[in-house]
Amino acid sequence: MSETAGATPKKPVIPAVPAAEGSTTSRVLLVGYGILAGIFVLYAIGWALGLSRQTHIDRPEASALSQFMTILTSGLAIASGPLWFASVYILTRKNRTPVKLAWQVLGVVLLVPWVFIVPPIGSGGFN
Amino acid sequence: MTDTGVPGEDRSVVPGAVPNAEPPAVDAATAQSSQRHASERHDDAVSDAIQDDARASARGKLGWLSITVAIVFGLFYVYAFFVAISDIVDWSISSNAPWGFLIAALLLPVVIFAVAFWVGLRRNIFGKALVFILGLVVVAALTISLNVAGDAAAYSGGDTLAQQL
Question: Model's pTM, two decimal places?
Answer without folding.
Answer: 0.72
